TrEMBL record:
It comes from the Bacteria. Pfam families: SBP_bac_5. Keywords: Signal. The keyword Transmembrane does not apply. Residues 1-21 form the signal peptide. This is ABC transporter substrate-binding protein. Residues 89-478 form the Solute-binding protein family domain. It comes from Kutzneria chonburiensis. PROSITE patterns: PROKAR_LIPOPROTEIN (PS51257). Coiled coil: none annotated. The keyword Signal applies. InterPro entries: Peptide/Ni-bd, SBP_5, SBP_5_dom. The lineage of its organism: Bacteria, Bacillati, Actinomycetota, Actinomycetes, Pseudonocardiales.
Length: 566
């Protein structure tokens, strides 16, 4: 699972005056991009945050290879480096294909490409990939994605290579170019997981444990020249990398200089003005602010330097369906009918920043989205229908609840959205008392059944663009965790849905799986286990000299491996 903090999530139509150039970027004809002549220059990266909480591939929680990490670490598979929905597909990276499954998707085999090398010229072998994965199990290196702990046969109690150098038996390397994974249940999504940075190779003789992140060994197009954590990073070319052995990354700039710790308003102002080095700049963690949005209609030149993406994300109202009053289906239906999604979207920044949700899956092809609305309430809610259902449920005079929200608005689940929900429910006879929870403890509080609020404004984004990591953590009854870290806050446990999940996990064709996930979304939402509020996408600004800057539906940010400043 993942909980993602978008700076400002944005949805809207593609801006006028842009056209799709080679490689999928939004460029005008006057700035056509040629991947064969894009090498050179220095790309500036202006960010609020560091490249990650840690720069060790075992400790980075990223899928698709991340962004800066994807310039340093190649993985067995990676994301397709294209705009929009095409960028939400899996592509081979270190491997020759996206994986060879057995009949029930419990065994996955990969073969490495020829000519792979680390930055020092040492050949990359399957054993380096296996060792890199095993490091992620070490208690000394926390923070990475947890899936392999559960998916690999007999790996739940593995303590990592520092304590158990024998490694994980479920990962086999029969020769230098072959690696085989044995899973304890079917997982058709394994090629998506193999994009995670835990699948990056690490040379055992260069491993320095917790200090490895100070200078991790590159397998990608760039290597670290200098790194001041939280402040700056400079990347230069890895001379042992070439496009001949990496068909995914263009690696156009000769040098990448990243500056961290900047205020979002400062980042957008520098990109808007675009003077000096800022003309060669992008950001990978800051969306357009209100000032920039207000300029787009009157400033066509600025509008040309904005691209749209759709990182799949859903905001919703959660509640425990096993406890009163939400154990009554009619109450849950009433809460769906009563919501005024127009006011909620306005609270989230307006129709250019969010769009209303009646499904749990966002409007992304790869997720399996199917349009439906089982509780049609129009743009502004249907308080009369809600009152009728409440009366039928035994609440003719309405009811009162407490709604928790984050103490700040930066993540779109704060006071503004909560107040809009409160106002809408008041019209249906539902009195809402707001409960503000500090942002630093919000997720921990909401995801622990012992402290879970009666109702809460929440958001969810998937670790990779498939319906599985969107549906399973939230609605698989077997994923319920009583001790904390539970994201099935509805306490939802439907035998048919659980069985459907198991069947879909056997499917290795992403298109077939997507269709089934859309059907499961429909099955779930008929039961009204939550109230979907809105989905979000992104609009990103880039510097005047930047070419081939586009946003994919996997990352929601610019792909630094594709942009050019020459």
């Amino acid at each position: 699972m993942t909980w993602r903090r978008p700076s400002l999530l944005v949805a809207g139509v593609l801006l006028a005056g842009t056209a799709t150039a080679c490689g999928g970027g939004s460029q005008t004809a006057a700035t056509a991009f040629d991947p064969n002549s894009c090498q050179g220059g220095t790309l500036e990266v202006l960010n609020q945050d560091d490249a990650g909480s840690h720069l060790d591939p075992a400790r980075l929680y990223t899928s698709g290879g991340g962004n800066i990490p994807s310039l340093l670490f190649r993985t067995l598979t990676t994301r397709t480096r294209k705009a929009g929905a095409d960028g939400a597909k899996v592509a081979p990276d270190l491997a020759t294909n996206t994986g060879e499954p057995n009949a029930d998707a419990t065994v996955w085999t990969y073969h490495l490409r020829d000519g792979l090398k680390f930055e020092d010229g040492t050949p990359i072998a399957a054993a380096d990939v296996k060792y890199g994965i095993e490091r992620g199990f070490a208690a000394e290196l926390p923070g990475g994605a947890p899936y392999l702990h559960d998916w690999l046969v007999g790996a739940q109690n593995y303590a990592g290579p520092y304590k158990d150098p024998n490694g994980i038996a479920a990962i086999e390397t029969p020769d230098a170019k072959t690696i085989v994974f044995h899973l304890n249940s079917p997982h058709g999504d394994f090629p998506y997981l193999a994009t995670a940075t835990q699948f990056a190779p690490v040379p055992k003789d260069k491993d320095k444990g917790a200090d490895y992140e100070k200078h991790p060994v590159s397998s990608g197009p760039y290597q670290i020249e200098s790194y001041d954590k939280g402040k700056s990073m400079v990347l230069v070319r890895n001379t042992n990398w070439s496009r001949a052995i990496d068909p995914n990354r263009l690696a156009c700039p000769d040098r990448i200089e990243a500056t961290y710790g900047l205020d979002p308003a400062v980042i957008n102002q520098r990109l808007t003005t675009g003077t000096g080095k800022d003309a060669d700049a992008v950001t990978t963690d800051t969306d357009l602010g209100p000032s920039e949005l207000a300029q787009l209609d009157s400033n066509p030149e600025l509008a040309k330097r904005v691209a749209k993406g759709g990182f799949p994300y859903t905001y919703y109202i959660s509640f425990d369906t096993t406890k009163a009053p939400f154990d009554n289906p009619k109450v849950r239906q009433a809460f769906n009918y009563a919501i005024d999604r127009t006011s909620v979207v306005n609270a989230a920044g307006g129709s250019s920043l969010a769009y209303p949700a009646t499904t749990f899956l966002p409007n992304n092809k790869n997720m399996g989205y199917q349009p439906f609305d089982f509780f049609p309430a129009g743009a502004n809610g249907d308080p009369a229908k809600a009152k009728q259902l409440l009366a039928e449920a035994g609440f003719p005079n309405g009811l009162s609840i407490t709604l928790a929200h984050r103490s700040q608005d930066f993540n779109q689940d704060g006071p503004k959205v909560a107040t809009a929900v409160q106002d809408a429910y008041q019209k249906a006879g539902i009195t809402v008392k707001l409960q503000s929870i500090d942002s630093s403890t919000y997720i921990t509080t909401v995801s622990n059944p012992a402290t879970q609020p009666q109702a809460a404004v929440q958001g969810w984004g998937a670790d990779w663009p498939s319906g599985g990591p969107f549906i399973v953590p939230i609605f698989d009854g077997r994923q319920y965790l009583a001790g904390g870290g539970n994201f099935n806050t509805a306490h939802f446990n439907d035998a048919k849905v659980n069985a459907d999940i198991d069947e879909i996990n056997k499917i290795t064709d992403p298109d077939q799986a997507a269709k089934r996930w859309g059907q499961v979304d429909s099955e779930i939402m008929k039961q009204a286990p939550l109230v979907p509020l809105f989905h979000t996408t992104q609009l990103r600004l880039y510097g005047k000299n930047v070419k081939n800057a586009f946003v994919s539906d996997w990352t929601g940010v610019y792909d630094l491996s594709q942009v050019s400043v020459k």
